[in-house]
Amino acid sequence: MSGPQPAFPLARVSRRAEWIILAVALVSVLLLPRYYPVMNQMAIIALFAVSLDLILGYAGIVSLGHAAFFGLGVYTAALFAKHVHGDPFLGLVIAAIAAALLGLATAVLILRGTDLTRLMVTLGVALILLELANKLDWLTGGADGLQGVVMAPVLGLFTFDMAGRTAYLYSLTILLLMLFLARRLVASPFGMSLQAIRDNRLRAEAIGIPVNARLAAIYTISAGVAGIAGGLLAQTTSFASLDALDFQRSADILLVLVIGGTGYLFGGVIGAVIFTAMHHWLSAVTPQYWQFWIGLMLVVIVLAGRERLVRAILSPFTWLLGLARGRSGPAK
Q1: Across 269-279, average pLDDT
Q2: What is the model's pTM?
Q3: Which of 1, 275, 310, 330 is the most buried (most CB within 10 A)?
């Protein structure tokens, strides 16, 4: 089966990429305690990007309204914690179910039509939810946001502290777990069939792949993962606002995948780290013009090529891994 292959070098050494990401994440826990809130945000955005990559990178479904599922997860987890129970894991399950049900209900809208049609339909769904959240202020808090969300300790042992350590470790654990499950999914026959559909839908239909059923299934799964990411945001910030459903949220996550690459899951993680770090640093240095520098970075990526840039960035890490395994230079 031929088709476009991810240009990112980590796609060829995904096992090593897992260890690099895990090592960097664990070292950051010890060395960067003052940045726990920022790193927690990175983990949440990374999981949200992974959810979009499942449909964009593997099934070829474009979306401008993926924030609909993320925002629904935010409000579901916040309302559940406020009115029912504050257990974090139970709240994530409820958020995932709510978002997945919305994904299943709207999957029929993306099965037909062109990419442009899908862009407009997904954007429309997100805008409808945004307006509903704004109008139902007795439930969602409207423009003021939903406040008073109190979370129980994780596993009954780890309380969410002001420094954000528990929140970061909690979000990081969920991210790594979902990455593991997503990797198993895309490496399965189901994942291979999705890539066949992405590369040539007519050929996939001709060999007997149930195209519509597979697309609806991955769209539902992707929505559930996005709902988990939204639930993490509500639980770790104890707040839910209309920003979670805003178009800017969907646009930002597309930028994350442009930066990191699509079609191998780890692009969302790396793109989230780069985008969030630049956003945090540039908005502190140049609050009015940080978006200019983000745009300039995207231009550089297009002109220079993602492979060349990332190979240069990751060469020190691969060299250290090679050194630890008894080699004196970067892995080939």
Answers
A1: 83
A2: 0.84
A3: 275
